What we know:
Order of helices and strands of chain A: HHHEEEEEEEEEEEEEE
Shape of chain B: globular
Distance between the termini of chain A: 125 Å
Number of helices of chain B: 7
Oligomer: heterodimer
Number of helices of chain A: 3
Shape of chain A: elongated
Helix content of chain A: 25-40%
Strand content of chain A: 25-35%
Largest interface: A-B, 41 and 50 residues
Largest sheet of chain B: 2 strands, antiparallel
Distance between the termini of chain B: 23 Å
Radius of gyration of chain A: 40 Å
Largest sheet of chain A: 6 strands, antiparallel, barrel
Radius of gyration of chain B: 17 Å
Number of strands of chain B: 2
Strand content of chain B: under 5%
Number of strands of chain A: 14
Helix content of chain B: 55-70%
Strand order of the largest sheet of chain B: 1-2
Amino acid sequence: MARTGVSSPGRSPLPWAVALLILVALLPLNWLGWVGWFAGLSETVLTPVSHPLRAAGRVFVPAPRREDELDADRLREQFEAEQLRRQQAELEIDRLTGLVERLSAGAAINTSVEVRQWPAPVTGAAGQYLVVRAGEREGVVTNSVVTTDGIQLLGQVEGVDDRTSRVLPITAPVAGRINGVILLDQTGEQRVACILAPAGDNTLRGEFQLSQDPITGQAVNAVEPGQEVRLLDNAWPGAAQMLLIGLVERVEPDENLGGLNRLVVVRPRAVLRQVGEVVVRVPLNAERSDRGQAGEGGTP
Amino acid sequence: MNWLAFALLAWIALGMQLGLAPLLSPGSGAVVGSFVIPVLVYIGLHAPPRSAIWASLLLGVLIDLTTPMTRADGGEAYILGPYAIGCFAAGHFTLAARGLVIKRNPIAFTVLCVLASAVAGVVAVAFFTARSLYPGDPIAWTPGTELLNRLGSALFTSVFALVLSLPLALLTPFMGFAHSGYGTHHHASGGGRAAARRHY
């Protein structure tokens, strides 16, 4: 092999440099902290070349995904999926909690009539009817009472098949008149009877007569906006009695009749045509009474 | 040798090493080709021996300063020396071999780069392995795997060497080599250069 021609040790610092580097290379790591400073300096000097080249290289050679990055991605996806599942579970819990409260409230009304409350989604509308996904399979029968939240009366089942039923809301123009009572106090002991008919704007309008002061004989206008109006109509099944028709929105004088007669406008707590879920009150004794067969005090 | 030109070349080669080599690495990234070894071999083939050895040593020091070692605790540490001595050995190897090869032949240049890279890698692995014998040495080191990685890197360096052979040959007039002709520096007379011109 040819001689390399490197100068002898006595005349060159090269052997000393090599010896020094060998010594440094074998030093324990905790004695080499100072090398990091030179490494940082080298990186600083080289960055003007390395950074643009890396950026340019990334255009043509996308960085391969490392295993730990893939693991991190998988964990992130799992975390997001679990988070979504947890949020959905929380929403479901909220929904079920609300449903239990509504059903409890509904069950507390008119406890003399045993009903099974069946939550069901509204799948669409057919003319003035709402189509509800609950039918004969669920025990729904014609004239079953339907509420929006257990308390607010929505209407009555007019037709039922195996899996669905058609519900006519009380605010639908073709719905008949209904008898109700305006509760003048919280206990409901003081009431004023009224007869309501759908007005076509998600309200019901009807007449009522002012009560009279027994001593002075003067009219006492105790009906005020915000008071509850409940159903008390023998034409409706027992499961519907005392359900909420709505709240008094305003009271107007009845110009046609005059005297103690007044007009009341009642607005349900929800837009009945737009509810997404209803509660069907299925009578446990399969009550199949028709509105016309209800007996005394029916809707005229 | 024009040391300013060498510094510029080394700067670009190390920049490419840091910026491009990891992107071009095959597989999991353990095997990384070198842009620096072709420069080392190029200098070793053309520069005067003393300059070539100093240049090799400097390139090795710079590799040490730009190649962090992974600690067992996940951190990084820089160790000066293993690659410096490895490149020193590779420079000597190139000087010893340059009389046996046609300097401007890309294939010869590529083969020399692979061998020089292997020499540097083996020496560096030897140093790191010796260090790993220290009790409580924090560097995460498995000699067998590292040696295979270095030898794989030496083989992969052939790709870079083949690509760089032409641009490096074109740089020769600017490098200020005293002897850039055919054969060893001892034959770098006008006749040697004439022979080289006749050869290509």
